[in-house]
Design brief:
Largest sheet: 4 strands, mixed
Distance between the termini: 33 Å
CATH architecture of the largest domain: 3-Layer(aba) Sandwich
Keywords: ATP-binding, Nucleotide-binding, Transport
Radius of gyration: 16 Å
InterPro entries: ABC_transporter-like_ATP-bd, ABC_transporter_ATP-bind, P-loop_NTPase
CATH topology of the largest domain: Rossmann fold
Protein name: ATP-binding cassette domain-containing protein
Shape: globular
CATH class of the largest domain: Alpha Beta
Strand content: 15-25%
Strand order of the largest sheet: 1-4-2-3
Oligomer: single chain
Number of domains: 2
Organism: Lancefieldella parvula
Order of helices and strands: EEEHEHH
GO molecular function: ATP binding; ATP hydrolysis activity
Length: 128
């Protein structure tokens, strides 16, 4: 999948072009395209329609088989799970790091620093 994190000439913060994702022989997203403008979005579809898969792709937690995700520098994609996804046997830092797609040691260190700052910002210093 081609994911681009640069500004592009459009009023949209996020644009998804021709996203396809399959799990085995099951096609979950088939050539999906959409232009997201500023705002809050709610996805409401039957179970198995591809909502979570799409959100995971938009947040960088899943890779599409094909297609493009264009993000402006101002785009922030987050998702809220329906149920707790914390692993009780892991620290706060370790739980957050599970969602970070850091490939190099330097990226991981930068992420840890930002996480510590964020935890301090919400009064959770020392819990990492």
């Amino acid at each position: 999948m081609n994911t681009t994190n640069r500004a592009y000439a459009t009023e949209h913060l996020l644009e998804v072009k021709n996203i396809t994702k399959s799990f085995g022989n099951t096609v979950v997203l088939d050539d999906f395209s959409y232009k997201f403008e500023r705002g809050v979005y709610v996805l409401s579809e039957p179970s198995g329609a591809g909502k979570t898969t799409l959100l995971r792709i938009l947040c960088g937690l899943e890779v599409a088989d094909s297609g493009t995700v264009l993000k402006s520098p101002d785009a922030k994609t987050v998702m809220m799970f329906q149920e707790d996804r914390l692993l009780e046997n892991l620290s706060v830092m370790a739980n957050i790091m599970l969602a970070i797609q850091a490939h190099s040691q330097e990226q991981k260190q930068n992420a840890r620093g930002r996480i510590k700052e964020a935890l301090c910002g919400v009064g959770l210093e020392g819990t990492e």
